[in-house]
Specification:
The protein is of the alpha/beta class and 225 residues long. It has 8 helices and 8 strands; from the N terminus they run βαβαβαβαββαβαβαα. It has an 8-stranded parallel sheet with strand order 1-8-7-6-5-4-3-2. Bound molecules: D-xylitol-5-phosphate. D-xylitol-5-phosphate is lined by residues 10, 12-13, 35, 37, 68, 141, 143-148, 177-180, 197-201.
Length: 225
């Protein structure tokens, strides 16, 4: 029986000196997808990996990759991450001058189109492009760093996102990202999230990745009911 939730470890918390090994370890630990947090030091005050690093890790695991582009020019780099092997490319609504065109172009690349909303950005801002959205990411932290505190006041926003998704006739993943752990996941899942990004809660778990993924999945499944 497939799990009703999807566990997506964030590579932001992986060991950057052995990313390939960590990708293989994530697959062994039962992760469903891996999220690459791409930061340009301008959209967010941090700098991480480019598409070459993602491409270099592609062969280390068979589980899908998604790219979370926390960058000011997503139109420029989205094609590179699709080419590097990301099945989903997620752009920030706040970084797109023409979001409708950007989402359509990601789909034309053969990737699924994702849109992420910072905590202050309303669901209303993507209502008119929801037909082009395959994944809606409600941020539960202010983007830029791992290990931040979950913002529980995002739960009504997650519920609003779930309502919008229920009104369309195509599948849209409802994803949350930021401070997700066995302690916080029930609130997010209870509000409607089913795709769970976690970095520090998985890589920092004293019991190791396998225990961490299993524990997060079990806690989330319990919250689905
Ligand atoms: C934005 C990043 C982080 C990361 C998850 O800063 O997108 O949210 O994926 O980090 P944790 O799970 O450690 O909060």
């Amino acid at each position: 029986m497939p799990s009703p939730v999807t566990i997506v470890p964030s590579a932001l918390s992986a060991n950057y000196s052995r990313l390939g090994e960590d990708m293989a370890a994530l697959e062994k630990a039962g992760a469903d997808r891996v999220q690459w947090d791409v930061m340009d030091g301008r959209f967010v005050p941090n700098l991480t990996v480019g598409s070459d690093v993602v491409a270099a890790c592609r062969e280390s695991t068979s589980i899908p990759f998604e790219a979370h582009l926390m960058i000011v020019e997503p139109d420029l780099l989205a094609p590179r991450f699709a080419k590097a092997g990301c099945e989903v490319v997620i752009v920030h609504q706040e970084a797109c001058r023409h979001l409708h065109r950007t989402l359509a172009s990601i789909r034309e690349l053969g990737a699924k189109a994702g849109v992420a909303l910072n905590p202050s950005t309303p669901i209303e801002s993507i209502r008119h492009v929801i037909d082009l959205v395959d994944l809606l990411l409600v941020m539960t932290v202010n983007p830029g760093f791992g290990g931040q505190k979950y913002i529980a006041t995002m739960e009504p926003k997650i519920a609003e996102a779930a309502k919008l998704i229920a009104s369309v006739d195509h599948h849209v993943d409802l994803e949350v990202d930021g401070g997700i752990s066995a302690k916080t996941v029930a609130g997010a899942v209870g509000a409607g999230a089913r795709v769970l990004v976690a970095g520090s809660a998985l890589f920092g778990h004293p019991g190791g990745l396998e225990t961490a993924v299993a524990e997060l999945r079990a806690t989330a499944e319990q919250a689905v009911g």
